[in-house]
Amino acid sequence: MNIEIIGLIAAVFTTSSFFPQVVKIWNTKQTKDISTTMYIAMMIGTCFWLAYGILINSFAIIVANIVSGLLVLFVLVFKIFYGNKGENKYGVDPKA
Amino acid sequence: MNIEIIGLIAAVFTTSSFFPQVVKIWNTKQTKDISTTMYIAMMIGTCFWLAYGILINSFAIIVANIVSGLLVLFVLVFKIFYGNKGENKYGVDPKA
Predict the structure, then answer these.
(1) Distance (Å, rounded) from C-alpha A93 to C-alpha B49?
(2) Fewest CB within a 10 Å sphere: which of A33, A63, B12, B34?
(3) B16 interaction partners in chain A (CB closer than 8 Å)
(4) Residue A89 is assigned to a structural domain of this protein
(5) Does residue A65 sit within a domain?
(6) Burial B26-61 (b: 16+ CB within 10 A, else e)
(7) Cα of B77 to nearest chain A Cα, Å
(8) Mind listing the pLDDT tens digit for each residue in A4-53?
(9) CB-CB: which of B15, B17, B35 is closest to A24?
(10) B96 within a domain of the structure (yes/no)
């Protein structure tokens, strides 16, 4: 088995992993448990990966980071839009 | 500037980005807005990256993916432990 196949499978999983999170927020319209700092750091990291991919001419790194960058951006925009809606001061289930 | 520095900065950001999410869950004990599928896919991807790092003898890839693997595992364990606590059926802010 080609080693690069392992890297490709890895990239497909880590890149597409953000997709179910985008879908979940799209359906629930809730983002309060999601860390804004995480997605800002992920966005910065993705931009650096993209720059790195361009500098080393790696098509796989460029494509993977454009896709994850867009998905991370969606989560960030949703987070700004929906904020902490649904939060209650004591972090307690109101039905409990 | 060395191109590898760009890659290193990228890796530091994307790897450590999970840390604020772990801290947020630790403080709020709430995970309902977090997608389990995302973290399962991220965990699988991280394992493949780790295997890839071992196969190509890249110390940076190995270390980065052990760190993110542990952080992703924390989020998954928290998600299993806290589940959808705090969810209300209509996804509406109870204070609103």
Answers:
(1) 38
(2) A63
(3) 41
(4) no
(5) yes
(6) eeeebbbbbbbebbbbbbbbbbbbbbbbeeeeeeeb
(7) 15
(8) 899 999 999 999 999 999 999 999 999 999 999 999 999 999 999 999 99
(9) B35
(10) no
Residue pair B44/B76 in contact (Cβ under 8 Å)? The answer is no
**Among the listed residues A14, A8, A48, the one whose alpha carbon sits nearest the alpha carbon of residue B4:** A48
Q: Most distant CA pair in chain A: distance in Å?
A: 55
Task: Please say whether the beta carbons of A8 and A58 come within 8 A.
Answer: no
What number is the ipTM of this complex? Answer: 0.84
Among B46, B55, B93, whose Cβ lies nearest the Cβ of A6?
Answer: B55
Query: What distance in Å separates the CA atoms of residue A60 and residue B44, rounded to the nearest whole number?
Result: 19
Cβ contact A85:B93 at 8 Å: yes
Length of chain A as a residue count: 96
For residue B34, give the DSSP letter.
S
Cα separation, B22 vs B2, in Å, equals 32
> Model's pTM, two decimal places?
0.85
B70 occurs within a structural domain? yes
Residue of B nearest to A18 (CA): B38
Check: CB of residue B37 under 8 Å from CB of residue A20: yes
Domain at A9, CATH number: 1.20.1280.290
Q: In terms of residue numbers, what domain contains B64?
A: 3-82
Distance from CA of A63 to the nearest CA of B (A): 15
* Residue B31, helix vs strand vs coil: coil
Determine the residue of chain B that is closest to A5 in CA distance.
B52
